[in-house]
């Protein structure tokens, strides 16, 4: 497979299989021969064809570097391009995840209340970290939440995310807001102008949680009007005050002229759900943004009394304005190329130091294997004709510098031990309460048998007790068989792997 072209670091990774394709490029699973880890490598083609696409890619890789948290997908490495001025493709190395929440919901009709609780807890904990960094995701949906068979979820796809600063205008024109309507908060329906707040992400999480409970989307609107219809069918007609705060005039008129609807009790809509879960869901799906809890308040809800631990729910440092200055001005293709190159250097500390000191060369960095071969070949051709016995030039480096792979232990102190202590956090301190609350939550090994269906989850929701787990299994509270066949459908263009 001609995957890495002239990227010399490519020999570090052993490509295994294609797990996703799209107009953006291709995603392959691979083995990192330096660390022994399984990874997903996303090759993004022709990133500078459209400045808007390149800006989205820059925003995404920058945010994923800044937002390092166990509930957010991690970029392990970005390959160094052979040319600073001329590169057009990039290779982003992610931790490998098996599926996404959309596939999990489709393939599982036997999820337990413990699964629902643990899934929602992870989403809200990740969202708290994102929001305290002053970042709003804006495109939360099941396909943008990666999943492993051990119940671990990770939020991905930050291409539509935005950072809020104190001088950000209150009304934002969302020319690029193309997120799936089904998970869009009602204050955004039919309006490109909107004040975005953390409440829009909370609404989306509520929709996702409801989908987990029922196995199907809660508000599958066919258009804006239909979306408002089915939202009000469940929540009832909003108050006059709530309608007056909607920015879009047509939406205001439509809601004002709508026949009065009474809300449907959530206990009727979700008859088998935990009453505590429904009370929290009802808060998250409040029509008025101000009535929705923020992520931190939701984590403190009684629904999570058995697993919540505030010490394992860190806040982030707010993102600095300087990191996203490019969002505030018009930039050229060459500007964005330089900014992406600068971001790639974050994974190459030696090169970054030279770049910052102004001592790195303007053209090629460390030569790729292909370029070096061409130079050796040209040298041999030239000197062989002259009868020279001189040896061709040696490589300047036996291998490319080992990249800066950022593990959880390299994170700031307040998040350094999240991965290591997650099982203890969720279960160790609360084992007795959890055992009393659900006898079904027990230590189970992987059931032996046929391969699971795509996204299939097998076994109990959580593992605790004396089960030994490896470093790579720190979050594993449940195991399942992995079906490699599911991978071709789990990665959407610029979606499942951001």
Automatic annotation (TrEMBL):
The keyword Cell inner membrane does not apply. It is an enzyme of class 2 (transferase). Residues 388-411, 468-498 are annotated as: Disordered. Signal peptide: none annotated. Its EC number is 2.7.11.24. Pfam families: Pkinase. It comes from the Eukaryota. Residues 473-482 have a biased composition (Basic and acidic residues). Residues 13-304 form the Protein kinase domain. Gene3D superfamilies: Phosphorylase Kinase, domain 1, Transferase(Phosphotransferase) domain 1. Residues 486-498 have a biased composition (Polar residues). It catalyses: L-threonyl-[protein] + ATP = O-phospho-L-threonyl-[protein] + ADP + H(+); L-seryl-[protein] + ATP = O-phospho-L-seryl-[protein] + ADP + H(+). InterPro entries: Kinase-like_dom_sf (IPR011009), MAP_kinase_CS (IPR003527), MAPK (IPR050117), Prot_kinase_dom (IPR000719), Protein_kinase_ATP_BS (IPR017441). One of its GO terms (molecular function) is protein serine kinase activity. ATP binds at residue 43. Keywords: ATP-binding, Kinase, Nucleotide-binding, Phosphoprotein, Serine/threonine-protein kinase, Transferase. The keyword Kinase applies. Belongs to the protein kinase superfamily. CMGC Ser/Thr protein kinase family. MAP kinase subfamily. PANTHER family: MITOGEN-ACTIVATED PROTEIN KINASE. This is mitogen-activated protein kinase. It comes from Oryza meridionalis.
């Amino acid at each position: 497979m001609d995957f890495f072209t002239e990227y010399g670091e490519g020999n570090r990774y052993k490509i295994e299989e294609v797990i996703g394709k799209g107009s953006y490029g291709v995603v392959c699973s691979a083995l990192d021969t330096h660390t022994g880890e399984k990874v997903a490598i996303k090759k993004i083609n022709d990133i500078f064809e459209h400045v808007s696409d390149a800006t989205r890619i820059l925003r995404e890789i920058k945010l994923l570097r800044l937002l390092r948290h166990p509930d957010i997908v991690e970029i392990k490495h970005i390959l160094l391009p052979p040319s600073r001025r001329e590169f057009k493709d990039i290779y982003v190395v992610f931790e490998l995840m098996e599926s996404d929440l959309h596939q999990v919901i489709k393939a599982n009709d036997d999820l337990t209340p413990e699964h629902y609780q643990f899934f929602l807890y992870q989403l809200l904990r990740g969202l708290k970290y994102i929001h305290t960094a002053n970042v709003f995701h804006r495109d939360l949906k099941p396909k943008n939440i990666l999943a492993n068979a051990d119940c671990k979820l990770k939020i991905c796809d930050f291409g539509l995310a935005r950072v809020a600063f104190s001088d950000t205008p209150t009304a934002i024109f969302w020319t690029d807001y193309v997120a799936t309507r089904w998970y869009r908060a009602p204050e955004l329906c039919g309006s490109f102008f909107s004040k975005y707040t953390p409440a829009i992400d909370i609404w989306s999480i509520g929709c996702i949680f409801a989908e987990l409970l029922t196995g199907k989307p809660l508000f599958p609107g066919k258009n804006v009007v239909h979306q408002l219809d089915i939202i009000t069918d469940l929540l009832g007609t909003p108050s006059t005050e709530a309608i007056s705060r909607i920015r879009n005039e047509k939406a205001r008129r439509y809601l004002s002229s709508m026949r009065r609807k009474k809300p449907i009790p959530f206990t009727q809509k979700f008859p088998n759900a935990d009453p505590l879960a429904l009370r929290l869901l009802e808060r998250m799906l409040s029509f008025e943004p101000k009535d929705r809890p923020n992520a931190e308040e939701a984590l403190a809800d009684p629904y999570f009394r058995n697993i919540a631990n505030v010490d394992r729910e860190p806040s982030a440092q707010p993102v600095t304005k300087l990191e996203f200055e490019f969002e505030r001005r018009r930039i050229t293709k060459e500007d964005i190329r330089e900014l992406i190159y600068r971001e790639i250097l974050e994974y190459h500390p030696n090169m970054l130091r030279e770049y910052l000191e102004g001592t790195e060369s303007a053209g090629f960095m460390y030569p790729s294997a292909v370029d070096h071969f061409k130079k050796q070949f040209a040298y041999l051709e030239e000197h062989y004709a002259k009868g020279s016995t001189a040896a061709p030039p040696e490589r300047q480096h036996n291998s490319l510098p080992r990249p800066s792979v950022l593990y959880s232990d390299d994170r700031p102190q307040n998040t350094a031990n999240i991965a290591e202590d997650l099982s203890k956090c969720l279960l160790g301190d609360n084992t007795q309460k959890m055992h009393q609350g659900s006898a079904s939550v027990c230590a189970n090994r992987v059931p032996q048998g046929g391969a699971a269906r795509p996204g299939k989850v097998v076994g109990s929701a959580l593992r605790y007790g004396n089960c030994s787990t490896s470093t790579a299994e720190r979050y594993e509270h449940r195991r399942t068989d992995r079906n490699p066949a599911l991978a071709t459908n789990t990665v959407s263009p610029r979606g499942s792997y951001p």
